[in-house]
């Protein structure tokens, strides 16, 4: 048997060193055996399998920590905030209702006072009062449609508060009574139209019906008109 030559020995050592990586020296002085590629693949597969099953939600992250605790619910804070918002909303609704009432009263008073002292005949004056009433109705319907939530919620929660339409009627009735000249001339003009129709003259029945409905809506038909009519 021939002995290995120096060249063959060096070649085999080199090949063995290339096949197996050198052993690393650990900190404790012991040598660690290198891990093979198969072990690395197994570790990678284990890591991948663990990562796929791991829950990344914040709650799970907090639970995985021994000292971490989930945040406490803010139920009490939300309830207090809701109470403040409801209280503020109720105050705003009351303020809005009072502002609407104030603006309507100023407008109705000015419109009726503008009819005082009108030197016109009965038919013209009745046309003026009819236009004043029609403008009032249109504007109140518009206000009610805009402030629909106020009319439905605030008024229903407060039985002593009138609806926007009823509030407007009450203001119109109030200021019509404060302008007795306008009310009396209106009743006199209606009675004159009815008398002329009985005599066979043509009258504006649409105007007559509108004003009679006005007295009915205001609740003063019997008091202001029917007594004089009978």
UniProtKB/TrEMBL annotation:
<dbReference type="InterPro" id="IPR045093">
    <property type="entry name" value="Cullin"/>
</dbReference>
<protein>
    <recommendedName>
        <fullName>Cullin N-terminal domain-containing protein</fullName>
    </recommendedName>
</protein>
<dbReference type="GO" id="GO:0006511">
    <property type="term" value="P:ubiquitin-dependent protein catabolic process"/>
</dbReference>
<dbReference type="InterPro" id="IPR001373">
    <property type="entry name" value="Cullin_N"/>
</dbReference>
<feature type="compositionally biased region" description="Low complexity">
    <location>
        <begin position="8"/>
        <end position="20"/>
    </location>
</feature>
<dbReference type="Pfam" id="PF00888">
    <property type="entry name" value="Cullin"/>
</dbReference>
<feature type="region of interest" description="Disordered">
    <location>
        <begin position="1"/>
        <end position="68"/>
    </location>
</feature>
<feature type="compositionally biased region" description="Basic and acidic residues">
    <location>
        <begin position="46"/>
        <end position="57"/>
    </location>
</feature>
<dbReference type="GO" id="GO:0031625">
    <property type="term" value="F:ubiquitin protein ligase binding"/>
</dbReference>
<feature type="domain" description="Cullin N-terminal">
    <location>
        <begin position="86"/>
        <end position="230"/>
    </location>
</feature>
<comment type="similarity">
    <text>Belongs to the cullin family.</text>
</comment>
<dbReference type="InterPro" id="IPR016159">
    <property type="entry name" value="Cullin_repeat-like_dom_sf"/>
</dbReference>
């Amino acid at each position: 048997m021939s002995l290995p030559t120096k060249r063959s020995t060096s070649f085999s050592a080199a090949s063995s060193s290339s096949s197996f990586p050198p052993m690393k020296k650990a900190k404790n002085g012991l040598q660690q055996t290198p891990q093979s590629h198969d072990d690395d693949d197994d570790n990678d597969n284990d890591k991948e399998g663990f990562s796929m099953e791991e829950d990344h939600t914040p709650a799970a992250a907090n639970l995985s920590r021994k000292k971490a605790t989930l945040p406490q619910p803010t139920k009490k804070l939300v309830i207090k905030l809701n109470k403040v918002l409801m209280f503020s909303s109720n105050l705003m609704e009351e303020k809005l209702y009072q502002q609407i009432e104030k603006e309507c009263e100023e407008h109705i008073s000015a419109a009726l006072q503008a009819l005082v002292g009108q030197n016109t005949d009965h038919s013209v004056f009745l046309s003026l009062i009819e236009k004043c009433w029609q403008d009032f109705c249109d504007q109140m319907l518009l206000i009610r449609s805009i402030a629909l939530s106020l009319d439905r919620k605030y008024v229903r929660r407060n039985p002593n508060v009138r609806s926007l339409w009823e509030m407007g009627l009450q203001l119109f009735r109030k200021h019509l009574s404060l302008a007795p000249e306008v009310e009396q001339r209106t009743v006199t003009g209606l009675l004159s139209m009815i008398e002329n129709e009985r005599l066979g003259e043509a009258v504006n029945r649409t105007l007559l019906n509108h004003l009679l409905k006005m007295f009915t809506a205001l609740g003063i038909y019997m008091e202001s008109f029917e007594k004089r009519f009978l």
